[in-house]
Each structure stands twice: as structure tokens, then as C-alpha cells.
Specification:
Layout: H1 2-22, H2 26-40, H3 42-46, E1 58-62, E2 67-74, E3 77-81, E4 88-92, H4 94-101, H5 107-112, E5 116-120, H6 122-134, H7 142-169
Helix pairs in contact: 1-7, 4-7
Length: 174
């Protein structure tokens, strides 16, 4: 019973979560995103590893939530904007992005399954994908890491449970 509820939350949660998030003022979204990105990428920023993003725009779209943000590097810090002309675009469903961030899924696998879309400047896209691959969860602030890992475990179990029940409903042939 709880497994079915979890599967339903994982399947329907992002769409339901998107409704209040759409009404969250962008100023608040930007503040939260810039703070989290700053925490996560502080070392990379200090070492100049994100210079490839200087004045280049990365569009991040969470398709099922209906949210889009644009990220660039300006004055040695990551800046989030609401509307820009992107150089490269990454888009996926919320659950897939959580699994990528928690290292439960490989971006290449999701790309070839067409669950992660990368469009635009190929070279910039490869830099961004390489950055995604290089994220060390141990370098992440503990509250963020623990929350992300718990959420990813929940999502993964819910997706698995949903797949099991979908298989049970599939017609059989003899």
C-alpha cells in the first residue's frame, strides 16, 4: 500500500509541485538557486573551472514542473536569469534531474534514452555535461547532500514500484 502511494507521489508530485512554484516570485527563485549553486560550485568557481560559462547562457528546463532558468558566470559568480537567449539547453523531467544530481543515473544514459535533452552549442554542452559528471557528493554541504540522497532514494523506489505495477497491468499473450 505504501509502495503504491510512493509510486503515485513520484509520478504525480512534480506536476503538482509545479503549480505553486510557478507562482513563486522569480526574485525568490533566483536567490535560492544562486545560493545553492554558489554553495555547490564554490571550489570550482575559486579554481576557475566554470570560466567556460562566462557570458554564455545555459538554459535549464524542468519540463514536467514547467520551470525554466538561465545560468551564466558573471563577475566570478553564477547568476540566474528568467529570460535569455541560451547558448545550450538542458531539459529533463524533475525525477530524472534528481537522479542525475544524486549520481543514481548517468547523464549519458538518460541522453541516449531521450530523457535528457541537450541542444545548442555542442562544445558548451560537453563542458556542462563534464561538470555534471565531476560533481562530488562529498563536497556538497551536508544538509543539501542528505536531502538530495533521500529524495533520490524515494524517487528511485517510486519509479521502480510504478514500473512493477505497470508490468502487472500489461496484457499477456500465450
Amino acid at each position: 500500500m505504501l509502495e503504491k502511494l510512493r509510486a503515485q507521489i513520484v509520478r504525480q508530485g512534480p506536476g503538482l509541485l509545479g503549480k505553486p512554484l510557478k507562482f513563486t516570485p522569480f526574485v525568490l527563485q533566483r536567490q535560492v538557486l544562486e545560493r545553492v549553486l554558489g554553495w555547490q560550485f564554490q571550489q570550482a568557481l575559486d579554481e576557475g573551472e566554470l570560466s567556460f560559462l562566462t557570458e554564455r547562457w545555459l538554459k535549464v528546463e524542468v519540463r514536467d514542473v514547467g520551470l525554466t532558468w538561465f545560468v551564466t558566470l558573471r563577475d566570478e559568480r553564477l547568476v540566474v536569469s528568467q529570460h535569455e537567449v541560451e547558448d545550450v539547453s538542458f531539459s529533463a523531467e524533475a525525477n530524472d534531474l534528481v537522479l542525475i544530481a544524486a549520481r543514481h543515473e548517468d547523464p549519458d544514459t538518460l541522453f541516449f534514452q531521450r530523457r535528457l535533452r541537450i541542444e545548442g552549442d555542442t562544445e558548451l554542452g560537453l563542458y556542462v555535461k563534464k561538470l555534471m559528471d565531476s560533481i562530488d557528493l562529498d563536497d556538497m554541504p551536508a544538509p543539501l547532500r542528505i536531502g538530495l540522497l533521500r529524495l533520490a532514494d524515494f524517487v528511485e523506489a517510486g519509479l521502480h514500484e510504478g514500473a512493477v505495477h505497470a508490468d502487472d497491468r500489461a496484457p499477456t499473450t500465450c
